[in-house]
């Protein structure tokens, strides 16, 4: 036990967030609002037989994070096949740069962004030649 099995992204505008994550990462969503008792959309992030977890978008219950505020929570990092094209989608769909692309030498390219709801997330492209 102790393995991460689910995540929740707190959002102000559910439709805007579904569009952002759906178009950038190809996630699909299932309405679990009746079960949760609030606006709550399950996020299917990929093939159930591949490594990874699913999560949800849930209606934010308080104020949005303020720009420049210190991280308060977990930062989720999403694996991608093409860093640069994913970054372009993020920026074109209203996300903003939080920490530019950098090399994890011999392992991957990594960077962080702010979604349309003010949440920080990372993207990670494996690349043994990164330097």
Number of strands: 8
Helix content: 10-25%
Rough outline: globular
Task: Briefly note the structural class of the backbone.
Answer: alpha/beta
Count of helical segments?
3
How many whole angstroms does the radius of gyration measure? 15 Å
Question: Distance N terminus to C terminus?
Answer: 35 Å
* Topology as a string of helices (H) and strands (E): EHEHEEEHEEE
Point out poorly predicted stretches: none
Strand content: 35-45%
What strand order characterises the main sheet? 1-4-3-2
Largest sheet: 4 strands, mixed
The overall pLDDT average reads: 95
Describe the fold and architecture.
The chain is 20% helix and 35% strand. It has three helices and eight strands, in the order E-H-E-H-E-E-E-H-E-E-E. The strands form two sheets. Strands 1-4-3-2 form a four-stranded mixed β-sheet. It has a four-stranded mixed β-sheet with strand order 5-8-7-6, with helices on one face. A hairpin with a 5-residue loop joins strand 7 and strand 8 (120-126). It is globular.
């Amino acid at each position: 036990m102790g393995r991460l099995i689910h995540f929740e992204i707190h959002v102000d505008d559910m439709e805007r967030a579904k569009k952002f994550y759906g178009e950038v990462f190809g996630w699909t969503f299932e309405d679990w609002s009746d079960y949760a008792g609030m606006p709550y959309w399950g996020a299917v992030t990929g093939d159930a037989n591949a490594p990874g977890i699913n999560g949800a978008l849930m209606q934010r219950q308080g104020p949005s994070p303020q720009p420049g505020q210190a991280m308060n929570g977990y930062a989720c990092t999403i694996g991608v096949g093409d860093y640069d094209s994913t970054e372009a989608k993020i920026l074109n769909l209203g996300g903003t740069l939080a920490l530019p692309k950098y090399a994890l030498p011999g392992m991957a390219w990594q960077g962080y962004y702010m979604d349309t709801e003010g949440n920080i997330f990372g993207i990670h492209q494996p690349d043994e030649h990164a330097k």
